[in-house]
Amino acid sequence: MIETCDTPGLLPIQSAISNMLKQIISVLESEHIELGESLGRVLAENVVSQINVPPNDNSAMDGYAVRYEDLIDNNQLKLVGTALAGTPFKNKVLAGQCIRIMTGAVIPQGTDSVVMQENTDIKSDVVVFKQIPECGNSVRRAGEDIQQGNVVVTKGTRLTPAYLALIASVGIVEVSVFRHIKVGLIATGDELTPPGQPLSDGAIYESNRYAISALLKTFPVVLFDFGIVKDNKEDLKAVFEQAGNHCDLVLSCGGVSVGDADYVKEILDDLGSISFWKVAIKPGKPFAFGQLGNAWFCGLPGNPVSSYVTFEQLVTPVLQKLSGQTYLPTPYFVAKAACLIKKRPGRTDYQRGIFYRDEHGKLWVKPNGKQGSGIMSSIAHANCYMVLEQNADDVQQGEAVNIQPF
Ligand code: AMP
Ligand code: MG
After folding, report:
1. pLDDT of residue 9
2. Which of 341, 344, 360 has the alpha carbon at shortest distance from 398?
3. Which residues 6+ apart lie within 8 Å of 140 measured at CB?
4. Ligand 1 center to 307 CA (angstroms)
5. DSSP classification of residue 305
6. Residue 312 carries which DSSP code?
7. DSSP state at residue 200
8. Which atom of ligand 1 is nearest to the CA of 207?
9. Which atom, in ligand 1's list, is nearest to the CA of 253?
10. Quick one: which of 45, 76, 115, 165 has the fewest CB in 10 Å?
């Protein structure tokens, strides 16, 4: 036990993540959809190419297609035709002949090399070669990118724009993807007022749902927004029950700590089960994970920065696993602390920072203003997390800091 730990009995963040990943079963249902509609979806089957890419040997240059052996002790060939991309030269090229060829055009039968235009002179129908290439020069081989039968993209891959192009390049227009995840979102708190309405005494504007719904847009999910629910056990229970019956995952924010109006844990004990509800993460210690009816449940803390950070660090792996995606931990970069960074041992700290390069190309990072868990501008104006190890204390100026750029 660490003497200086804020609160004993907290689950280290990596244990929390592996605990959740071990329990969650990915959705199995899949559907066939148009490739053009598949951005952001997760592949349910490997994509296998039925063709070679490129399909034929073709030219990487504008120039002349030649037989290499013709140029061993001769530098002039007779021009007998043209090969364009999409319009191949149909006949066989004979000894002493060459073909005008454009980039992407199929290498004519009988030729084996391409000499770039810049290394030639042309005199009526005779081409003079000023430089003799190696055999096979400037020829892109059939199948050099992808071979027939190759797996082009594996099951569990989240489709990016580049994957869409790769799949299109093998002629496939329909893909099998896992269905969307149904995610329910509930904000809790008597004080929460929707933006656009007047604020009564003691109230604040509800903002977490705006961040979380927007963050959810980067996943293959359908959002069920259950709005703001008052701190009233009956109302909360009814909404939680409905969400648990309709969704694959329910996210709530607020009411998850141990205050008098914090009912989330009690309701979960009635309607489901809680695996853990205290994680060694700062901000965000009260983070609950469990089951609610048919759904998985993540109870996020209400403080705006805490709910944002716990979403990114703890809910992201849950969404990846649920949606069938291969889990990819977020990579770190290393920067040097530009000043003293305050930290108490006990929890992994995700402070909001600004990283930059100095004139020597060195990477530095400094905290972005106040780090309180209610100070949303600390995230909005930052460009990275500074990830400070659970057991670490203050980071001195010049020491290495792991950062995760936003
Ligand atoms: P709680 O976790 O319910 O104790 O809330 C902690 C703090 O976060 C309180 O100051 C709440 O007013 C605030 N809070 C809770 N939910 C939200 C929300 N959805 N939007 C903005 N602030 C919130
Ligand atoms: Mg509350």
Report:
1. 78
2. 341
3. 54, 57, 58, 59, 60
4. 9
5. H
6. I
7. P
8. 20
9. 16
10. 165
What is the residue with the minimal CA distance to atom 14 of ligand 1? 302
Q: What's the pTM value of the predicted model, to 2 decimals? A: 0.89
Residue 4: pLDDT above 50? no
| Residue whose CB lies within 8 A of the most ligand 1 atoms, among 185, 188, 207, 208, for a mutation test | 208
Closest CA to 236 of 189, 269, 289: 189
Give tens-digit pLDDT for 161-187.
999 999 999 999 999 999 999 999 999
Do residues 256 and 302 lie in contact, with contact meaning Cβ atoms separated by under 8 Å? Answer: yes
Q: Which amino acid is at 293?
A: G
Cα 376 from Cα 366, distance rounded (Å): 17
Task: For the chain, give the percent of residues with pLDDT over 70.
Answer: 98
Please name every residue paired with 353 in a beta bridge, in sequence order, or none if there are none: 367, 384
Contact in structure between 113 and 133 (CB atoms under 8 Å): yes
Model confidence pLDDT, tens digit, residues 100-145 = 999 999 999 999 999 999 999 999 999 999 988 899 999 999 999 9
Query: Of the bound ligands, which one is closest to the alpha carbon of residue 261?
Result: 2
For helices 264-271 and 233-246, the axis angle rounded to 10 degrees is: 50
For tokens 């244990």, name the residue: 15
pLDDT for residue 253 is more than 90: yes
Q: Are 88 and 133 in contact (CB under 8 A)?
A: no
Pocket test for ligand 1, best of 232, 236, 253 (most atoms within 8 A of CB): 253
Looking at residue 53, the DSSP 8-state letter turns out to be B
Identify the burial level of 344 via C-beta atoms within 10 angstroms of its C-beta, where 0-12 means exposed, 13-18 middle and 19 or more buried.
middle
Looking at residue 133, its pLDDT comes to: 82
Task: Give residue 68's pLDDT band: very low, low, confident or very high (50, 70, 90).
Answer: very high
| Ligand that comes closest to the CA of residue 206 | 1
pLDDT recorded at residue 345: 95
Distances (CA, A) of 250 to 21, 224, 243, 321: 16, 9, 7, 15
Question: Which residue's C-alpha comes closest to atom 8 of ligand 1?
Answer: 303
Q: Which domains are present in the chain?
A: 13-28+180-322 (3.40.980.10), 30-53+149-178 (3.90.105.10), 58-140 (2.170.190.11), 333-405 (2.40.340.10)
Residue ranges around ligand 1 (CB below 6 Å): 187, 189, 191-192, 204, 206-209, 253-257, 259, 301-304
Distance from C-alpha of 379 to C-alpha of 308, rounded to nearest angstrom? 9
User: From the CA of 370, how far away is ligand 2's center (Å)?
Assistant: 22
